[in-house]
Design a protein that fits this description.
It contains 10 helices and 10 strands. The chain is of the alpha/beta class. The strands form 2 sheets. An 8-stranded mixed β-sheet has the order 2-9-10-8-7-1-5-6, sandwiched between helices. Strands 3-4 form a two-stranded antiparallel ribbon.
Amino acid sequence: MATPLIPRMHLWEIDDQLWFPSFLRAYVQTGLTHAWTVHVPLLQPYSPATAVANTLCRVLGDRNVSRYTYIDFCAGAGGPTPFIERALNKQLLSHPPASQPQSTAKSTAKSTGTSTETSGPTVRKVPATESTLVGSTNGKKNNDKGEETEGVEKTNGGHNGDNAVRFVLTDLHPHVESWAAAAAKSDHLTYVPQPIDAAAAPTELLQQYLQNANGSGENKKGIFRLFNLAFHHFDDSLARAILKNTVETSDGFGIFELQDRSLAGFLTCLVFGLFIFLVAPLLYWWSPARLFWVYVVPVVPFVLVFDGLVSCLRTRTAAEVEALLRSCGTDTNGWRVRSGREQFLWPCGYLTWIICTKDTPAAQ
């Protein structure tokens, strides 16, 4: 990707502000989730969440993609991670993912970090087979409308195949209720109810997910951190701290963004605002309050477009992320950086990705 003409600017987004009402923030976050998960035929080959799963399979490779536990350290209300989990495990459980050429990826080989212990809050251990029980009550679940339902069928058919991988939701500000509803629908999705700082991940949390789903220490899994539409929120100082902790305690990370500092990125944000006006009746017909804040007082589409444009200005290129990685204050020799972009919306929507892994496979 060519170097952007516009320098990175760490401006503020409305959704990040403490004064922004929490109920409107929830509406905006729901809109962002739909940006990740909605598939519009003819205009999209698949949803961006599915594009992330496809990219992980393609870039990590058929063999290595199942060697990690994927931990989202900035999960928010859940975002695309539950949908990425379903898409990736659907591929892994049905058949080994086919190899694809990596023509859009560029690679540089460097670094490995040394393991260190970091202190953190007490973390509740959550066996993968019990993930649907964490934080839930009376076996009830929440549907997309926020209503409690019973007997929701789980994805993956209850299978625990060797190829299936676990995903974990964490955040500095946990959304336990939303995470519990998502975890109740999959055998391979869990969450940590305590606050987790991505710059100081608790050692006990990471060690817990190094073992296999059956609890054995054989064929240990590596830790792969996910940052979905999140890394651009960190200023340089915090980004370096998070990368330092990642190198010291994990085996890889992926940064996935729906925007960048290009004309196509800015146009995509404007198109998304129009998209919300067109599809809101289909998505939110059951909530007059949401429709009010979309049409009568259009705060939700305004914030989505405004914050989207600011996010474009805040998004780093692969070279900028690698510069932070190499200057984060720990040994990064043996880490390999790959990056690329994939179109998810015609004519201007592109998923940009940066994947960084240790040269040595996570599991032997």
